[in-house]
Amino acid sequence: MEKSKTTQQSANLVSRRNFLKLGGSAVAILSGCTFNQRTQASRRTGRPKPNNIVLIITDQQHIDTIAAGGCRHVQTPALDSLKISGVSFTQSYTANPLCSPARSAVFTGRTSSEAHVHINGRPIRSDIPNLGQWFSQHTDYETFYAGKWHLPRTYTSNIPGFEVIHTGIGGFGYLCDTAMSRACEGFLRNRSKGQPFLLVASFMQPHDICEWLRLNMDNPPKLRYPELAGELPELPHNFEYDKNEPASIKQRRRGCEPAKGGWSKEHWRYYRWSYYRNIENLDAEIGRILRALADYGYTDDTLIVFISDHGEGMGHHKMVRKSSPYNEASRVPLLFSWPGHIIENKTDMVHLASGMDIMPTLCDYASIKSPANMRGISLRSILEGDSGPSHEFVVTEVNSNTGRMLRTNRYKYIVYVDDPVEQLFDMNNDPGETKNLSSNSRYASILADHRKMLKDWEHRLDVQPNIPHADVWRSMG
Is residue 436 part of a domain? Predict the structure, then answer.
């Protein structure tokens, strides 16, 4: 059965590539205008407002999974077109490397602890508006949602503030994502252009890697498909790691499939190869939506935003899955495209960004104020090449509110409640996070500065008393 599954997967890959070749010219329209021509004109008449906004969300996507971004192991023409036609951030972080908490931050601009979503399957706190509710109250945009929600239910017909586009299928991404992208295509094909809209297209892939891990936990005596031997990606340079870690990180590594199954390096590489196939499956479905936008004349007046809720371990630090403060789980792809209004083909490697920036950025483009107490900022000035606000640091909450990661421009600081082991990494000289500097006396003042930044940030949060460890965080430092 496993053999036929891979044979079918290979056939699907060929089919997807042919499909994307046919749609390539339509998708390429996203980069058909020049930034200077359209933007200079719009600046003379004030800051423009997009007629439509499309927010694309993926689930569990590692940041280095876009061919145009340098990944050699995938073909991603749809995501390539978004990257080339706009701005992509390399230092973008999830607010929490777990599905529901991350999504609560994207849709509220608040931390997952403030939104009261510190674990999966919880609703957003009732007194904090989500993106759909805020836009419905303060704009003329009609708001629509298709795909995974997970706040609290994964798939539901009832999402506050949104009209749900029903796809009829939940569960695995290789099934439900196709249904969802086709539903979005039908929505764009049949919609009257008289009313502006906000459309959220939320994909399940590449989350299917979780099921792959369950099915392939035990290390096989030899590679199941010898014909793949020459195609398997190499192991990451930070496959090994500094053992001076908090107990929660060590426990998570021990509890995942590679440790339980005693994986060989070859099996690790097979897992990485399989994950990339899920990315290509996802890219084909994103391509369907982008092609529909182009075919039905929406491209020029539509702002497209692409983000993932969190990343994937991918073998870095010998880890898989999520819920880790290391970059592979906590850093996410973040792309913005609006040809003629946003800088094109720019990779921003300087500015820190957070999933909490989505809400204030979209409010800025919709010409409305953001809700109170935003923890994110609008990225619009950065996207349009102007000077404007930027993050001094971003924070990621981890592991049911027991951990925190604080990232400044140069350093990353990690700490867990009731754990004496802290981590400090010099991200300029050690981007793979392989040398913990927290016990090095030369970095004592830097460590103290990051502790203070985190404590001051924590004291500004509006966290309800029944969130785990809320009081402990306020007393730390």
Answer: no
Residue 425 placed within a domain: no
In the structure encoding, which two tokens stand for residue 201, read together?
């297209």
Structure token digits, residue 88: 């992509």
Look up residue 219 and give its two tokens: 């290390």
**b/e map 320-342, b = 16+ CB within 10 Å:** bbbbbbbbbbbbbbbbbbbbbbb
What's 42-55 look like in SS3?
HHHCCCCCCCEEEE
Residue 403 lies in a domain: no
In sign, the C-alpha dihedral spanning 384, 131, 147, 123 is positive
Q: Give the count of domains, the chain.
A: 1
- pLDDT for residue 30: 52
CA 225 to chain centre: 31
Contact 172, 211 (CB under 8 A): yes
Positive or negative torsion for Cα 133, 138, 140, 141: negative
Give the per-residue pLDDT at 477. 56
CA distances for 376 relative to 163, 206, 389, angstroms: 26, 26, 11
Spatial strand order in the sheet of 163-164:
163-164, 142-147, 197-202, 52-58, 302-308, 334-337, 86-89, 346-348
Per residue in 327-369, pLDDT (tens digit) is: 999 999 999 999 999 999 999 999 999 999 999 999 999 999 9
Looking at the domain assignment, is residue 207 inside a domain?
yes
Which of 294, 284, 285, 390 has the alpha carbon at shortest distance from 85? Answer: 294
CATH number at 376 reads: 3.40.720.10
Q: 35 pLDDT band (50/70/90 cuts)?
A: very low
Share of the chain above pLDDT 70, in %: 90
| Residue span of the structural domain in which 329 resides | 2-383
